[in-house]
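Quick one - first record:
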Amino acid sequence: MLLRSRIARDTAIAPGPVGPYTISPLENALKFARRTAEKRERLEARTANNAKARTPEIPGKDVAALLDEIGVSRESNLIAVLQRVQGGFGYLPAAALREVSRRTRIPLSRIYGVLSFYAQFYTEPRGRHTIRCCRGTACHVRGSKRVIQTASQRLGLEDGQTSDDMRFSFETVACLGACALSPVVVIDRKYYGKMTPRRLEQVLNRLLAEEAPAGEKA
């Protein structure tokens, strides 16, 4: 009986095996934290560089002047700040986002996460005319797929694209808040309900004719 008790005691207090692959819980937590931080830094650098490559750079003095006017600080509401910045520049330049991140102490990756969640924000300049087609359930069951295809083909743009001449931007959205009028298309804040491919083509033809360069109109 004494021998059994001694064996049980020694087994209970004996340290676990030690080897080159043994990682303590603390070391594992620190390793995970380092990987997370490195991943976040890479994401911030990649998103910032991609946005910078696609859009013209706004002078730093213009960014600073607008953010000073808004009064951006660590206590600022991020959504409200982004709305004000987009209202000032027409979109959200990479330089402005970096400065907002610095002033609010919010990681750039988190800011880009907010931008990707809310359809109201744009990180690229928009065309003079924006065409939005609803792809929601009510519109879908009433033929919005063909309406969207018509818009894409007539404008020569895919969802989310802006024409090279900056005349048109085309996008689809999950809901436009007018399901009773489905299928719905909004062009420059004007709602077009009960839309059909033929009717949309007529509307776009008029818009394209109005926006055509002087030489093409003739």
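second record:
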Amino acid sequence: MALLQKLERYFLQVPQGICSRFRMGFYILLGLRSGGQNRMEKSRCRRLSQIVMGKRNAFTQGAMLWPEDAAYNGIRIQIGDRNYFNRNIMIDACGYIVIGSNNMFGPDIYITDSNHRFGKDISPSAHPMQRGKVKIGNHCWIGAKAVILKDVELGDYCVVAAGAVVTKSFPAGSVIGGVPAKLIKASQ
């Protein structure tokens, strides 16, 4: 059994780690500001100069860091240290999204700081975006398939249930869930 584990590590884990290092180096050359020991497996980013991240973050495959595709001299996505982002997370920023440190994100999560305007007899694509911001504190746990929408602030140690759609802010230590998300348990 030990031999199989060594072979698995050699043929699966080591090549992914090497590719991740090359990807991070390439992204840094293109303008990403990044601390050390970050890992990005088969992830996509654009407008890299608008993204800042600390150290020791892990993005598994399918992650997308997606600032608005427009010239901008500031930061649209800021990520702290030691966060774990499971597969297929999308961080979609037209305004500003800030994520603290030591958070865990389940698979298939969508975080956005903007929304389409709409009106009678006018296509949503014809209106400018409503821009806002999103702030996620430290030590939060965001469950699988959660959606976090614009102008939401989650305090430290929040837990968001799987499948929740978060449309408003919650204080530190909150456990929230549902569509739209409601307080399930307050901090103690």
